[in-house]
Amino acid sequence: MKKTLLILIAFIFTISLTGCGGYEELNNLSIVTAVAFDKQDDNYELSFLIANSPKAQTSSKEGEAKTTVYSSQGKTIAEAAKTIEQIVPKQIYLGHINVVIISEDIAKEGFLNIADWLLRNPQTRKKFYLMQAKNEKAKNILKIVSPLESFPSQSIATLIESNSETKSIATSITYSNFISQILEPGYDPVLPSITIKGNVQKGSNEKNLETTEPDSYLVLGPLAIYKSDKLIGFASEKESWAINVLKNEAKEVNYNLKYQNEDISIETHSLKSSIKIKDSNNIEITISGQGDIYNITSPVDIQNYKEIHKIEKAWQKSLTKDLSKVIKKFQTKYHSDIFGFGNLIYKKDPKTWNKLKKDWNSKYFPNLNIKIKTNLKIEATGSLVKTIKEAKS
User: Fold this and answer.
1) Are 193 and 132 in contact (CB under 8 A)?
2) What is the three-state SS of 363-381?
3) The pLDDT of residue 124
4) Which residues of the chain have pLDDT under 70?
5) Can you list the domains of the chain with their CATH numbers?
6) Side-chain half-sphere CA neighbours of 80 within 13 A
7) How far apart are CA 35 and CA 79, in angstroms?
8) What confidence score (pLDDT) does residue 15 get?
9) Which of 30, 187, 220, 308 is within CB 3.0–4.6 Å of 343 for a Cys-Cys bond?
10) Which among 186, 354, 174, 158 is positioned nearest to 283, based on CA atoms?
11) pLDDT of residue 211
12) CA-to-CA distance for 111 and 199, rounded, in angstroms?
């Protein structure tokens, strides 16, 4: 018993010592929570969002910024990083990066130009979110403060997580996910985009937190389309959720359907997409899921099973048309296989893929015969038997 007690006391004493030592070490670090990559003329511009640690023996002052953005330029990313290290008074630590933002200029030149710096740094965990800046410098996005989160980096991470769960326009993609898609045969990647609504200067001021309606805020945009590691364009909002449905990334979609020349809104959930390779030129995609009618303006008896069956058929036909249109656009305009059809052929039949891979995007992908099948069911029709208009009449 005494021996056990002595071991326990020794353990607690050791933990307390290492805890104090760890605290002092942490207090001497500049914790980077987000990174931005831009181009300025012929130079790379690197920006670090650093969490401000409390000053010794003082409490944080009211209105004192919780973060600081440091930026520097260089012919290489490493050169720009070295310059920031000379400016920041504490040792820079990259082990807590949540988000990395890349500018359109960087993305159009090729992501792999900067990927090596992130990969080789031993501190980075490679699990941070990667996002595409749209119509804005990447470093400005790091400056926008939010009333709902202490740090802009956490605000961005929360934004992408919540939207990928509910709206399915964006999708959360980590650095590791993105690199694997670039390196996978027959697969072109996408990235969620982000931009700023409002004035950057006002949005970076702590007073932006004190108003009931912020002067500036961050907004997720449509998916950024890549061919290999280069940005080639942006999808529309409608195309973005269609892409996520096809890639099996959509969890919920609010779908608006025309039925008898009136609007019906269906809250779709439990969506699943499966792709079957018939052969190197024929692909079958099956979309299944359930939905609830939550808005209807047409005078339809939604308690009638036959009527519901007709709505289901109209929904399946409409969704098939929307998805087919998006696939055709990527085949004819972008020549970018973001759906990974080529990758599935590679996995199923590597010998055939070796014959196709050289001209896949330019010749074979644009001419794929793709058939879409849907299996969609309406589970609930809301609490009203009649529309409000019908009930009033």
Assistant:
1) yes
2) HHHHHCEEEEEEEEEEEEC
3) 81
4) 1-26, 52-65, 146-151, 165-167, 199-214, 298, 381-393
5) 29-234 (no CATH), 246-393 (3.30.300.210)
6) 23
7) 15
8) 39
9) 187
10) 186
11) 55
12) 28
Q: Which residue type, as a one-letter code, is found at position 170? A: A
Contact 255, 247 (CB under 8 A): no
Question: For residue 261, what are the CA distances in angstroms to 22, 299, 300?
Answer: 67, 11, 12
131: its two tokens? 């996002």
294, two tokens: 């939550």
Q: Are 362 and 335 in contact (CB under 8 A)?
A: yes
Tokens of 268: 């779709």
CA distance 127 to 94: 12
Q: Which of 254, 289, 255 is nearest to 273 (CA)?
A: 289
Structure tokens at 252: 């919920």
Q: How many residues does the chain have?
A: 393
Q: How many CA atoms lie within 13 A of 149 on its CB side?
A: 18
Tokens 């930026």 locate to 71
